[in-house]
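Subject: design request, 363 residues
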């Protein structure tokens, strides 16, 4: 396969050059750095307090019987708020100027959810962010037998019903991630654009150890140390992942997998149309990108275009950066795709519906 690149280089992209100039001017005039500010520290401490505070209440018996389902569900929500606002920025080294401290915070805040911080950060930064929505380059749309996310993937007969069974599959998304996908990715040599992958034995040991510790604090400690009802704990554990899956997917899946998002294809020379920046614009869909409310809780995932264009800037600036993107895109006649949360969800399922019927390259 030919080397993959863009037909327009960054150095020739007038839109991106102007956009960067305006964003840098915004940061300079307001005396902002690109790293976390006091708001991020406040949010981080708040959500960590809510997460571990809820865990303490679970162990102390404040959620009895089937109420334990609520306790574990809240644990999932608070854990995701930590991941959205702290872990995600940490993996992009935008919390502090210290890469070592960023990595430490990333692992410390993401691994308790069960998914491997190391494996997710690896494929997120070096696959998805470089070529979003490009087949065989973006691991997030890599071959999936049950769900067809890209119009360039093979159409199978059961995909006709994927828009109907997807909500059921989505319930176990993070369970599959924890116990299947992470293990597969740990030992696979090739993932989309990532080839000949090897992991140090200590890394493999660390990933497996993190899974053991995650099961230890979520299941073993409540049952064997605090003598909680095993059935209630296991139901709570399932509720944790059902909630984790739905909140994660239904606030993120429309960002790239929707009717509005493009799925660019390479030409015979391996070139993608446009530039790197216009590719990010074409493949991202935002919802309420200038909302301080959504930014506070979801860490800028709603302003996905700003994140993809400026992944090394902390998410607290995405509200203003999204305004700059909107104005600059309008001046350069480039589409900036924005929707509402509800319409984004509907768009995702319309996307699944259409992909279940239309053959590759026909869209």
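Subject: RE: design request

Done. Sequence follows.
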């Amino acid at each position: 396969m030919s080397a993959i690149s863009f037909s327009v280089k960054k150095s020739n992209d007038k839109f991106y050059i102007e956009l960067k100039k305006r964003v840098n001017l915004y940061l300079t005039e307001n005396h902002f750095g690109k790293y976390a500010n006091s708001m991020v520290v406040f949010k981080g401490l708040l959500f960590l307090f809510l997460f571990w505070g809820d865990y303490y209440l679970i162990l102390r018996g404040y959620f009895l019987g089937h109420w334990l389902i609520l306790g574990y569900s809240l644990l999932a929500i608070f854990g995701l708020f930590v991941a959205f606002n702290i872990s995600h920025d940490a993996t992009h080294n935008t919390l502090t100027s210290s890469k070592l401290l960023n990595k430490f915070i990333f692992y410390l805040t993401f691994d308790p959810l069960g998914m491997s911080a190391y494996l997710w950060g690896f494929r997120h930064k070096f696959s998805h962010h470089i070529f979003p929505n490009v087949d065989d380059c973006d691991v997030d749309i890599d071959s999936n037998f049950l769900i067809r996310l890209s119009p360039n993937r093979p159409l199978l007969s059961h995909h006709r019903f994927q828009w109907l069974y997807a909500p059921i599959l989505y319930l176990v998304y993070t369970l599959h991630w924890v116990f299947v996908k992470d293990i597969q990715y740990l030992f696979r040599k090739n993932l989309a654009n990532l080839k000949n992958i090897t992991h140090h034995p200590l890394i493999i040991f660390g990933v497996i150890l993190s899974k053991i510790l995650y099961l230890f604090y979520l299941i073993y400690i409540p049952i064997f140390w605090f003598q909680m009802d095993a059935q209630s704990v296991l139901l709570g554990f399932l509720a944790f992942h059902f909630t984790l899956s739905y909140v994660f997917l239904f606030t993120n899946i429309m960002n790239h997998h929707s009717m509005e998002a493009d799925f660019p294809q390479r030409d015979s020379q391996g070139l993608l149309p446009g530039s790197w920046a216009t590719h990010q614009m074409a493949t991202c869909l935002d919802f309420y990108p200038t909302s301080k409310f959504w930014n506070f809780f979801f860490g800028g995932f709603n302003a996905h275009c700003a994140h993809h264009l400026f992944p090394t800037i902390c998410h607290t600036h995405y509200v203003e950066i999204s305004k700059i993107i909107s104005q600059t895109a309008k001046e350069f006649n480039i589409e900036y795709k924005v929707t509402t949360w509800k319409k984004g969800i509907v768009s995702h399922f319309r996307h699944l519906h259409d992909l279940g019927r239309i053959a590759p390259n026909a869209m």
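The chain is about 55% helix and 5% strand.
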